[in-house]
Model the fold of this input.
Amino acid sequence: MVEIVGVETRDAGTFYSVLNVAVSLPLLYMIRLDGWGFSRFGIHGLLWTDAAGNILMFAAVAVVFLICGLGLRRSSDSRPLTGDAAAAS
Done:
């Protein structure tokens, strides 16, 4: 994290603290949600709560992938090779 903050940042201490909080928040929420699932439904609740978080994140990544395509679209130059070009390769 020190490499992200860098030495030329004016408020390096504040930036470092904010990054620490941003990294810790998802961990704290999952600990809290897992605890809630365990207190309500026992060990199965803990596991299903954890699975639900993973499924939600998978769905979010899948939606972003479907909407943005993440640069994996074929270029217009990707034509199949035919004739002499196919024999040469």
About this structure: The chain is about 75% helix and 0% strand.
